[in-house]
Amino acid sequence: MILSLPRFALPAIAFAGLAVLAGFAASTSTAEEGRPIPPPAVDEPAGAKSPEIAVVAGGCFWGVQGVFQHVDGVVSAVSGYDGGAAATAHYNLTTRGDTGHAESVRITYDPRRISYGKILQIFFSVAHDPTELNRQGPDLGTQYRSAIFPLNDEQAHVAKAYIQQLDQAHAFGAEVVTTIEPGKAFYAAEAYHQDYLAHNPDQPYIAAYDMPKIANLKRLFPEVYRADPVLVGAKS
């Protein structure tokens, strides 16, 4: 059985075993391969000038944050929790899987340079596997579910239409299980989770599960790939 302990709860010696296990899982799963998919037929109208926000969840927030930090047009990508109450928006509580929270990423982007639909295309294509229910890679539980937290009716409409489009096109080998959960609040994660991929590219979990996502972003979306990530820690 694949390990499902909180990543920081694993003793140091376990990381060696996790690396081996991660290599096996990566070789037998399509989760880290990335997949070219069509852009959304329904998207936000162009022309907005103010920064906009998208919130998505797709497994461990380290990798999802890392992907969007390398996307041109993204102003900020912050790891956090969404779907539950403020009182339980803490790592040691969300890992229990009973708080309603999902590990999430709040993406602030410039709509003059990238659209909400493009954010979702990258999310579905390389940031995670949207056909896995309540899991990503070795991480199990509702806190690792695939979810979109729309901030308005327009975002909800775009997300719903895109999921229907992908399913009708059989873009994946199975049905998309991503939930659309409006009306929720995002809470930033603890400081030690921010920019984790950028600062720890050789950590076994990151190397096995998340760095391939960055490579897939560069390969499948070269027009929006940026080599230097936009980091939370770089903000004043």
What features would you highlight for this structure?
single chain; 236 residues; alpha+beta; Peptide Methionine Sulfoxide Reductase, Chain A; 6-stranded mixed sheet; two-stranded antiparallel sheet; 33% helix; 15% strand; globular; disordered N terminus
State the gist of this model.
The protein is an alpha+beta fold and 236 residues long.
Folded structure, characterized:
- The protein is an alpha+beta fold.
- The chain has a single domain, classed as Peptide methionine sulphoxide reductase MsrA (Peptide Methionine Sulfoxide Reductase, Chain A, 2-Layer Sandwich), CATH 3.30.1060.
- The chain contains 7 helices and 8 strands; from the N terminus they run αβαβαβαβββαββαα.
- The chain has helices spanning 12-28, 61-69, 91-94, 116-127, 153-168, 196-199, 204-220; strands at 52-58, 74-82, 102-109, 135-136, 139-140, 146-148, 179-180, 186-188.
- The strands form 2 sheets. A 6-stranded mixed sheet has the order 7-6-1-3-2-8. The protein has a two-stranded antiparallel ribbon with strand order 4-5.
- β6 (146-148), α5 (153-168) and β7 (179-180) form a beta-alpha-beta unit.
- It is globular and about 40 Å long.
- The termini are far apart.
- Mean pLDDT is 89; it is low at 1-6 and 9-31.
Q: What is the CATH third-level topology name? A: Peptide Methionine Sulfoxide Reductase, Chain A
Arithmetic mean of pLDDT: 89
CATH architecture: 2-Layer Sandwich
Oligomeric status: single chain
Task: Give the C-alpha Rg.
Answer: 16 Å
Strand content: 15-25%
CATH superfamily: Peptide methionine sulphoxide reductase MsrA
Helix content: 25-40%
The CATH class, by name, is: Alpha Beta
Poorly predicted residue ranges? 1-6, 9-31
The structural domain count equals 1
Number of strands: 8
Specify the biggest β-sheet: 6 strands, mixed
How would you sum up the global shape?
Answer: globular
Structural class: alpha+beta
The separation of the N and C termini measures 43 Å
Number of helices: 7
Strand order of the largest sheet: 7-6-1-3-2-8
User: Secondary-structure element sequence?
Assistant: HEHEHEHEEEHEEHH
